[in-house]
Design a protein that fits this description.
Number of strands: 2
Order of helices and strands: HHHHEHHEH
CATH topology of the largest domain: NADH Oxidase
InterPro entries: Flavin_OxRdtase_Frp (IPR016446), Nitroreductase (IPR029479), Nitroreductase-like (IPR000415)
Radius of gyration: 22 Å
Structural class: mainly alpha
Family: Belongs to the flavin oxidoreductase frp family.
Organism: Xylaria grammica
CATH class of the largest domain: Alpha Beta
Number of helices: 7
Pfam family, one: Nitroreductase
Number of domains: 2
CATH superfamily of the largest domain: NADH Oxidase
CATH architecture of the largest domain: 3-Layer(aba) Sandwich
Protein name: Nitroreductase domain-containing protein
Length: 136
């Protein structure tokens, strides 16, 4: 297997990679995905430029292509670019100033509306209905 940088990434993130590996955490086994995840950082200082045209749609399409439980896609996204709306969102989110300064702020919400509509269209308004055609 390919050698990875996982032990040094564990050391940087958690302090003692040797203890983690000794406790059964492993070294990532040459898995580049593990290495990528351990390199994750949150960035909250954004450039003021807007996204190029079509980028938001592409990003949302990629997110919609990700696997979800039973492929239900029970989420919606709200895109905020208007400064007043971003200010309200920042206030509602514990006064997180980075929201105000980001050119675009995406809010991902659990959304069971599609699931509810699908249930109603099949005559199964609620999960657990006693109707034989509603059980799965």
């Amino acid at each position: 297997m390919a050698e990875t940088n996982v032990p040094s990434l564990l050391q940087a993130r958690y302090g003692t990679a040797a203890d983690f590996v000794a406790a059964g955490g492993g070294d990532g086994g040459g898995n580049s995905t593990v290495e990528t995840l351990l390199q994750h950082r949150s960035v909250r200082h954004y450039l003021p430029e807007k996204l190029p045209a079509g980028s938001l749609e592409t990003i949302v399409a990629a997110a919609q292509s990700a696997a979800t439980s039973s492929n239900l896609q029970t989420w919606s996204v709200i895109a905020l670019e208007d400064p007043e709306r971003k200010d309200k969102a920042a206030t509602l989110c514990g006064d997180q100033d980075f929201i105000r300064h980001a050119p675009l702020f995406l809010i991902f919400c659990a959304d069971l509306n599609r699931l509810t509509k699908a249930s109603r269209s099949t005559g199964c308004a609620a999960r657990g209905s006693s109707s034989p055609r509603c059980s799965s």
